Amino acid sequence: MAQQLDSPLGTAPEGKLVLQLAIPAMLAQFVNILYSVVDRMYVGHIAEVGAEALAGVGVCAPVVTMITAFAALVGFGGGPLMSIRMGRQDLEGARQIVANSFYLLLALSVVVTVPVVVLRRPILFAFGASEQLWPYAEAYFTTYVLGTVFALLSVGLNQIVMSQGFSGTAMRSVMLGAAVNIALDPVCIFALDMGVRGAAVATVLSQVCSAMYTLRFLFSRRALVGITNCPLHFGWIRRIFQVGLSPALIIALDNVLLISVNVMLRKYGGADSDMLIACAAILQSFMLIITMPLGGITAGTQSILGYNYGAGDTRRVMRAEKRIVLLCFIFTAVMFVIAQTMATPFVRIFTTDPVHIEQAAWMIRTYTLGVLGLAIQYPFVDGMTGMGLVRWGLTFSLLRKGIFFAGVYLLPALFSATTLLYAEPISDILSATVSGAAFILLFPRLMRRREAEN
Question: Structural domain boundaries of the chain?
Answer without folding.
Answer: 13-448
